[in-house]
Design a protein that fits this description.
The structure is a homodimer of 355-residue chains. Chain A has 355 residues and is α/β, with parallel strands linked by helices. Chain A is built from 14 helices and ten strands. In chain A, strand 9 and strand 10 form a beta hairpin. In chain A, helix 4 crosses helix 14 and helix 8 crosses helix 11.
């Protein structure tokens, strides 16, 4: 579809970057990059799978953009894919846990809901964040996703429903957790001066960075902030010559509601510790000062892990093109995407703008 | 160890490229790049896992070299790792099979020994290749590996032993198959003009290419030649301004003996169909016209899948530095490494030379 949208023949593609987290575990197929590329008619060129947990296709996109910017290639496809629903839920949880620190936290019984529950609990302790703040993020993202025809779960929920949801890992209820989804997304990357050959509505990468940190929570300096996200944000802002104040809308990695709250703080959308009230007061809602996850986010649009980073880029581009329909933001010149791997061991931040 | 060898501090490393095929399946740990990097003291920079089946670290090296050559980074580590022996053999075979076409050939009962047995049988039919030709490759690589202190299986074998080996997939005996190994390798990549800061004995990348093809054998034009290897070889030769005749020694991907024979043909070391006699006559032995796999190859040095591509580069560099001891080649100015993913869906060819 991205090839059609850009009037590209598969034979024109010079390299294929595929983000996929755990295809071998979910469906048994490894060596996925040439496999998927050949199905799309792309062959003979470098076809490579990038794995960085839930930031796999964010990382594929980062490396693809870097290669095109450096003049290595002119026409690159960066895609992401994950098929998760073929496994039963306990096995999905186990596969997802392999993105955490196996020897330490996972073998001790932690799963990702448990890890993010600890982050939420500590954020509550340090900053007074409440369950209502978390639930406000869920209500907002479900309301956004309800307007997105491509969302996985189009379902409006109330604050009361979110608060009364089944408890998964205290204080996170089922409504604080993102979805187990199947999905794919792809982006075509070309040099700016050639963009008009392929589309009448290009978007421009203004800044991009990938960074890393330790896997285990107990090895991080703090668990209420992600150092990798802050560092990636700073690098991307610097490359773009922009600051947080310039970002008009964003797709943030809401694998859990607390993750979106922490991201709004780490990226400088609001002061540290104020991400909960910031969301609850409507700043990140459609019509608010800086809409976040107008796609519905991982909560409602869905979280096919390896596809999420590329899908975020697609959603930012849809907004920049003014093609978001009912969920269109008013100020759509500059958008930011933030993709998180595991509990913050990988972070990719991209700032996109109108050409 | 590669950091020590190059007098590098971990904080100087600007990006970390890790090749790993199936860590999640072998040991349960995914998201391996920041995990391994942090253990080496590298953090905060892009740390990314590259997966391209048995060519995973060949691909990591290709992308790292490309990034340094394009001026994106100055100091990059490309590494590879695989820990295979923690699983029982039938499970290892199953995990390796995930690099083939799952829906077609693997679910039909094929494993990698079976796929390469078909390649060998067809090569015999088309070109008169014999079991003695295959066995000659095994005898040679075991003789080479016997001289390599770092080899996994240091064991001399005779032609008679190789021919009388336990049949795995007719015509391939146990001696035609590479090893199930644990291992890791790493390479430091810097711009040529900075090499003297880090080592007195640098090697230079003269040419490098990664290419792709269909996964399934029945979708390839021929199964007695790997189109991806030929294409990668042609590109690498062109980049280096060299031809096959200029290559003095090589590390070729002998996952099975037939694979080394086909590679010597596909890379132009000998005419098509003559790879068997070429090996049997000693051309590829130490002291021969063009020694191949002086490390012992995947047969004797071992085949920790995700580490193999990076290990091949290390072995070429050891020869170029003149540090190969008993297995040192006489003409060590130009060496070639060929890394194969699956049954040829990915190929990486690198030509290295003295600075």
């Amino acid at each position: 579809m991205s090839l059609q949208d850009s009037h590209l023949q598969p034979s024109q593609v010079e390299a294929f970057y595929l983000g996929n987290f755990a295809g071998p575990s979910f469906v048994g197929q490894n060596h996925l990059a040439p496999y998927v590329a050949a199905a799309a008619g792309i062959s003979g060129v470098p076809c490579t799978r990038f794995e960085a947990a839930c930031a796999s296709s964010g990382s594929a996109f980062f490396h693809a953009v870097t290669a095109v910017a450096a003049g290595v290639y002119d026409i690159v496809v960066a895609a992401g894919v994950e098929k998760m629903t073929s496994q039963p839920t306990p096995r999905v949880t186990e596969i997802l846990a392999s993105a955490g620190d196996l020897g330490g936290e996972i073998r001790a019984g932690a799963t990702f809901p448990a890890l993010f529950a600890m982050i939420a609990r500590r954020h509550m302790y340090e900053y007074g964040t409440t369950r209502e703040h978390l639930a406000a993020v869920a209500v907002k993202n479900h309301a956004h996703g309800f307007k997105n025809p491509a969302a996985h779960l189009r379902k409006l929920i109330t604050l009361e429903q979110a608060l009364a949801g089944k408890m998964i890992a205290d204080p996170l209820t089922i409504y604080d957790c993102s979805l187990v989804s199947d999905g794919a997304a792809a982006v075509v990357i070309v040099p700016l001066e050639r963009a008009s050959e392929f589309t009448r509505k290009p978007a421009r990468v203004l800044g991009i960075a990938q960074t890393s940190d330790h896997l285990a929570l107990d090895q991080k300096e703090s668990i209420t902030t992600f150092g990798a996200v802050r560092a990636a944000g700073e690098k991307a802002y610097k490359m773009a010559g922009l600051s947080a104040a310039d970002v008009q809308f964003a797709e943030l990695h809401d694998c859990f509601t607390i993750a979106e709250i922490v991201a709004t703080e780490d990226l400088g959308f609001c002061p540290k510790g104020e991400g909960g009230p910031y969301a609850a007061q409507g700043a990140t809602s459609l019509g608010g000062a800086r809409p976040v996850n107008t796609s519905g986010g991982l909560k409602s649009k869905g979280h096919p892990v390896g596809a999420t980073g590329a899908a975020q880029i697609c959603d930012i581009v849809i907004q920049i093109r003014g093609e978001a329909g009912e969920r269109q933001v008013a100020r759509n010149e500059i958008g930011l995407a933030q993709n998180l791997g595991g509990s913050g061991a990988t972070a990719v931040v991209t700032i996109l703008g109108k050409v």
